[in-house]
Structure formats: structure tokens, C-alpha cells
Amino acid sequence: METAITAVAGELLSRFISFTINKYCSSNGCLEEKGERLQRLLMRVHTVVEEADARHIANSGMLMQLKILSEAMYQGYLALDTLRFQLHEESSMDKVSDSFVSISSATRLKRRRTFLAPVNKGKNLYLEVNGALENLEKVVSDIAEFVVLLGGCERLSRRPYDAYLYIGNFMFGRHTEKQKLLNFLLQHNPDGAPAVLPIVGGLAVGKKTLVAHVCADERIRSQFPSILHLNGDNFLSIVDHEKAILGMSSLLVVEFVSDVDDMEWKEFYSFVRTNRRSKVVIISKLERLARFGSVRPIFLNALPYEELWYLFKVLAFGSADPAEHPRLVHIAEGFAKELHQGGSLIAANALADVLRRNLDAQIWLCILNRCNKVIEKNLLAYGQHPKLLMEQGHEVDMTDFAFSPVSPLRIMPCTSSSSATYAPVKELPQMTIGELLLDPSVRPKGQFNLLSWESRLPPYTSFIHFVPNCTEDSPEGTHLSRRKRRGMAL
């Protein structure tokens, strides 16, 4: 009797497993069809977004529609990459299912739970792909009118563009922000007084790069023969440029790292308004400086995850086709998640530059593990992400990143060579973060400067950390000091 019950139970379990496998395989076929549909829609939307990026769009409604299109596009790319990796990982499932029937009943019971897990995962993937597909189909159904109106927009100066080859040398994304800044600079001052536009955003989100990118446009250069760059320390020295201000249309780009006294601003603006054709752009991470604006500010937030993921993937693979490296695409997604939680575009560029040199899964996993250890160690010591520590002026423990447990590695908050509170010590040796990551043995003894990233875009900013000598004054396991060190870059 017991033998019969065991046989019946084994037969029922075998049929259940076969049914589940057939259902799962049929859903995979459906996913493949949706993936092909998704890829075709992405091609159409990407073409429109790229064309819109090369046009001057002054219509606010079109800018809102462009934002919706780009968001749907990046969401679709993320779903497509996830689908490709999942299908690649489970391409051998048919072979596994063929041998599944011959497994004993006891083994079947052990395998049941591990098999149902990917089925549930496939359901989540189906929902993700289906959601992205429905979103794209919705925006594509309304795209005809946008394309017609886009044809009437003036074309900007053409430039070579290919995401896989030139993305490192061009301003990525920020489609609507670029158009808003361009519109502001090309419009005449409405009330005869110089208009003021504040651009507000967090650390290293691309505020200066956005301004430099738009100012490189030929029409902007022709309209503003004089483009002056000032900061909070010298913006009142504008009186030294009196001839330039009075003689021609001028664009004044002022970067503030701290708040400004209202009286000082009035003194500055009273002089600027002597030329009614001038304009002022304020760059700062302080929202309260938006009070000086005469138009609505442009707020630059961190890139959404889908957009950051697309950017990091393109940067990390360079001219290689990500579709040929599905395992690496999955690892790159781990980097993108960490970067989105507390990273920056500087970190994304620096890491991608290292990964691009060697498309090896083991190396990528090793670097990802080091990054996770650095984050965990600083969270344990301070309860904050390394990026927040940097913004607050605290040093960060990067020992695990350099794989050097014997010699601690601490870095001071990053500064840019173009607008540093404290200039890096030129006499010290310097190395890049990529060199340190790939070969920690090349680390200089004592103090040195660590170059995390040097932008390929105007204003070609170099982001440099100061690395103090921690060998003697910090035994292994000692917590970092919260005290800011004088003379270090903030």
C-alpha cells in the first residue's frame, strides 16, 4: 500500500512538473515575441528622441512630450536588457526538463522548490516587460503629431553622433533642460532688464556641463560675443569688465558654493543692468539662491535609475555590443543600482572607464564586490553613504577599494580644478583611480593626489582627491575621524 501511494504521488508530481515546464516554456515564447516588439518600438522612439535633441524646441507642450518619450525609452531599454539576460540564463532549461522525468521521486521533491523559484521570477519579468511595452505603445500612438511639429523646429548645428562610439564626448540626456536653457538665452529680455536664470542641482549632477554644452552652440556664441565665468569669490569684480559689459551683449555665468548677501547681489545686478541685452545664469546647489532669478529655475536632479542604467551600460561597454555579453550586462546592473542609491556621474564615468578596458566577468564582479565593501564599511562606521560623507566634508575610507588591508586608504572630499575651495598640492605625486584599482601596488608612498575623473566635455573639469598618509597615524581597524582637516579640498 505504501509503495502504491508513493508511486501515485510520484506520478502526480511528475505531471505537475511537466505542466509547469510547458507553461513556463510557452510564457518564454510569449516573452520573446514581446521582446522583439519592444525592440522595434525602442528603435522608433529612439530615432524621434535623437532627432528632437538636434532641434530647437520652443514649445513647452512639446518639451513635456519629449520628457515622456525619453522616460518611456529608458524604461524600455532596462526591461529589454533584463529580458535578454533572463533568456540567456535559462536557454538550457529544455535540456534540464528532458532529464527531469528520470529523476527519482525523492530527488523531485528536493528539486521542486528550486524549480518554482524561476517560474515566479519569470512572472515578475513578464510584468516588467509587459508594462514597458504598454508604456511604449501608448507614447508611440501619440507620436505622429509630435513628429509633424518637430519637422517645423529649427535644426541645430549637426555633429557626429553614435551612442557606442561618442557618448563619452557628448552631453548625455537632459533633453528638456538643454532646450529650456537654450530658449532662455535666445529670447529677448521681456522687460528690458537682464534676465536671471538659476540652475540648481546637487553635487556633480552636471550643472556646469549643461551650461558649457549649450554655450557651445553657434547661435549662442554669436548672440553673446562676451561670455564671462565668475564665482562667489570674485563676482563683484564685474566692474573690471565694464567695457565688455557696456560694449556688447554679455552672458554672465556665476557659480555660488554658499549663500550670497542680498546687498551684494543688488550691487552686482545694478551694474549688470546697464546693458539690457545681457543675461545672467546662476549655478548652485543651494535652492535658496533661486530667489535671485527672474524666470523659473531649472532644477537638475540625479538621473532616474532607468536613464542612469542606460548611460552606465553604454559607457562600460564602449564600442562592444552589450547583447553579446549578457552576463556582463547583469553585473553592470549591480553597479548601476549602487550608483543610483548614492553615487554620482563622476563615479559612473570613473568605474565605466576601468570596466571598459577588460570585458571579463570575474574582474567586473571583483570590482563590484570591492565597491560594496567600501559602502558597507562606511555605513557601519558613520551610518551614511560615502557620497553623503563627501558632501559633508568628511574623509572616506577606501581601503577595501584599493585591496590594501595593511595600508589604510582615506580620501578627502573631491574638488574640481576649475572651482576648488582648496587647490590640490601640485608637488605631490598623482595617480588615477583606475590605476589604483587595477594595480594597488603602484600606490605612491605617503601623501598623493588621486584623480577620480577628468571630464571629456567643456569645461574639462578634473576631480581630484587628496590622500593623506595613513600608515603611521591610523592602525588597522581604527575608525575615521569626523574632524575636517584644514588645507584639504572640500
**Major sheet size, sense and barrel closure:** 5 strands, parallel
Rounded to the nearest angstrom, the radius of gyration is 28 Å
Terminus-to-terminus distance = 79 Å
Number of strands: 13
The geometry reads as flat
- Helical content stands at 40-55%
Strand content: 5-15%
- Structural class call reads alpha/beta
Q: In which order are the strands of the major sheet placed? A: 4-5-6-3-7
Helical stretch tally: 17
**H/E element string?**
HEHHHHEHHEHHEHEHEEHHHHHEEEEHEE
Instruction: Write down the overall mean pLDDT.
Output: 77
Sequence stretches where pLDDT stays below 50 over 5 or more residues? 16-26, 94-119, 159-166, 417-423, 472-490
Organism: Urochloa decumbens
Protein name: Rx N-terminal domain-containing protein
Explain what you see.
Strand 11, helix 17 and strand 12 form a beta-alpha-beta unit. This protein has 17 helices and 13 strands. It has 490 residues and is α/β, with parallel strands linked by helices. The radius of gyration is 28 Å and the shape is flat. The strands form 4 sheets. A 5-stranded parallel β-sheet has the order 4-5-6-3-7, covered by helices on one side. The protein has a 4-stranded mixed β-sheet with strand order 10-13-12-11. Strands 1-2 form a two-stranded antiparallel sheet. Helix content is 52%, strand content 11%.
